[in-house]
Every structure is written in structure tokens, then in C-alpha cells.
Amino acid sequence: MSEKTRYTDEELQEFKTIIEEKLEVARQQYEDVISTMNKRNSNDIDDTLPTYHALEEGSSVQSLEEQMQSAQRLQKFITGLQAALVRIENKTYGICRVTKKLIPKERLRAVPHATLSIEAKMAQGK
Question: In the chain, at which residue ranges do the beta strands (DSSP E only) sit?
Fold first, then answer.
């Protein structure tokens, strides 16, 4: 029996559902981070208690940097998930870019935007 070279349409549909759910959550998290950065939902006291502003300035800068990093990570994750949806449509989803073998389902369920098998990822790290 020959080795399976791609996932079936039913399996691809299962992965598509997983990815769409993760994409929805990631987009909401991204919007929340951006909203926080823009202080749209802010109930803080920055404008009402200027006495404490100087003490909190360093903390505010650090917090903003962390939020920017979080937004960048989420944007990268969203882009990866969107690319995975394209691969599903092209029926190339789940195929390792290096080994050209199927990435195990367990890995794809955990990291649905993965393009490398564990073996290829480990070899890349060396």
C-alpha cells in the first residue's frame, strides 16, 4: 500500500473548521489589543490624576511595548492561519515543505498553521 500524499477532503474540512475558529478568536484578541492601545475602552485615571503620571510613565511605555509585541504576534498568527486556509483550498494543506510528507494530524490540530513536520523543524534548528 502506498503512502498517503494528501489529506482527504473530509479531513481538510475538519482542519478548516479548526482554523476558522482559531482565526475568529485571534482576530478578536487582536482587536482587543488594538483597542487597549488606542485606549478606546479605557477607564484609567491618566487625565484625572496628573500627580501620579510621572511615576507611571515608565510602566506605561513598557505596557505599550508589550501590547505592540502582542499585536505583532497576533497579526503574524492571523496571517499564518489565512495562508493555511489557502493551502486547504489548494489541497496542499498538511504537507511538509521540506520532507513533502504529511504532517501528523496531532501536530496540525495543535499548530494548524504549521508548514513543517517535527523532524523538519528540529533539523532547521540545528
Answer: none
Q: Phi and psi (nearest 5°) for 2? A: -80, 155
pLDDT at residue 126 is higher than 60: yes
Q: What is the pLDDT of residue 37?
A: 82
Residue with cell 500627580: 51
The pTM score is 0.78
CA distances from 63 to 1, 69, 74, 111 (A): 56, 10, 16, 28
CA distance 116 to 57: 43
Q: Mention every residue, 6+ apart, whose C-beta is less than 8 A from residue 29.
A: 74
Q: What angle do CA 57, 73, 71 make, to 5 degrees?
A: 45
How far apart are the C-alpha atoms of 84 and 104, rounded to whole Å? 15
Single out the residue of 120, 113, 121, 117 nearest to residue 74, CA to CA.
113
Angle between helices 53-89 and 9-38 (to 10 degrees): 160
